[in-house]
From TrEMBL:
Membrane topology, as annotated: Multi-pass membrane protein
Originating organism: Yanghanlia caeni
Compartment(s) where it occurs, according to its Swiss-Prot or TrEMBL record: Cell membrane
Name of protein: ABC transporter permease
CDD domains (UniProt xref): TM_PBP2 (cd06261)
Sorted UniProt keywords: Cell membrane, Membrane, Transmembrane, Transmembrane helix, Transport
Family: Belongs to the binding-protein-dependent transport system permease family.
Protein's UniProt keywords contain Membrane: yes
Ranges that cross the membrane: 20-40, 94-116, 136-155, 162-180, 271-292
Keyword Membrane appears in the UniProt entry: yes
Length: 304
């Protein structure tokens, strides 16, 4: 185990990470945010969604360093008396869950369609790529809004809160699959003419086995880099939808929901309710983006 860790630490990728101050800073920031959000049940000083612990008398308490601040609430409270610091940790966990789940689903759809499109070719390839081209001509947020609106219109109103999470993941995923499909298709067009694929065909290996056992492992590199950057885009899309009121319910708010709630108090003096969730969102997205940009450059042989 020690030798394996040493070889990993001594690898070219690890060396590129150690010598990049931006990558190190982004990694440390992201690690702190992940620890705080995923461990919110233990890190957060309060449970902002436990009604028994909420006191309306503490509503709109300013941060601890301001006049009338309360040491119990480091970043102050919102209009319902919920601890804002604890709400940030829980809300960030919701944003991360939706962002990661939607990216995984978009990857699954895009990889399968990209492999089929590049390997089969012909009319099926043209059909899949034209659908992707049409979808890419619209902003992802509009596609997600359309899908979310259609699903909500088809489902009874009393079920909206129960299906909010899966609908949001599904809408963001369907808005992002074309990027993966086009990337995988381009790599598949190159890989399917390699000698190892020709040899597999000659020996009678099925097309499905060739695609998923031989071609797929060789096209995953660019996809993983794209997914890293896409996580930040998915989090922003979720925050935008929640800010517009069509995202997660207020009972389980994400960062976007917290920003929307705080926006109502921005000009009345309680700026911390919306500013701190906004800063947390910026730090989360920026660290993921910087890490994704570094990974893309580090894995690009033309830059090494």
């Amino acid at each position: 185990m020690g030798g394996l860790l040493y070889r990993a630490w001594d690898s070219d990728l690890a060396y590129a990470w150690r010598t990049s101050p931006v990558a190190v800073a982004a990694s440390l920031t992201l690690a702190l945010l992940l620890i705080g959000s995923l461990g919110a049940d233990w890190v957060a000083p309060h449970n902002p969604f436990d009604l028994a612990t909420i006191n309306l008398i503490d509503a709109l308490t300013p941060p601890v360093w301001m006049e009338n601040g309360n040491p119990l609430y480091l970043l102050g409270t919102d209009s319902q008396g919920r601890d804002l610091y604890s709400s940030l940790l829980y809300g960030m966990r919701v944003s991360l869950f939706i962002g990661l789940a939607s990216v995984l689903l978009a990857m699954l759809i895009g990889i399968v369609l990209g492999l089929i499109s590049g390997y089969v070719g012909g009319r099926l390839d043209a059909l899949i790529m034209r659908v992707a081209d049409v979808q890419l001509s619209f902003p992802a947020i509009l596609i997600a809004l359309l899908i979310d609106g259609v699903v909500r219109a088809a489902v009874p109103a009393d079920m909206h809160e129960n299906i909010a999470f899966p609908v949001l993941v599904f809408a963001i995923a369907l808005a992002g699959w074309p990027q993966y499909a086009r990337t995988v298709r381009g790599s598949t067009l190159v890989e399917k003419n390699r000698e190892y694929v020709q040899a597999a065909r000659v020996t009678g290996v099925s097309s499905t086995a060739i695609l998923f056992q031989h071609v797929l492992p060789n096209v995953l590199g660019p996809v993983l880099v794209l997914a890293t950057v896409h996580v930040a885009t998915a989090i922003i899309t979720e925050a935008t939808l929640s800010f517009l009121g069509v995202g997660v319910p207020p009972t389980s708010p994400s960062l976007g929901t917290l920003i929307r709630i705080g926006n109502d108090f921005l000009f009345s003096g309680e700026w911390w309710i919306t500013i701190f969730p906004g800063v947390a969102l910026v730090l989360l997205v920026l660290s993921v983006n910087l890490l994704g940009d570094w990974l893309r450059d580090a894995l690009n042989p033309r830059l090494n």
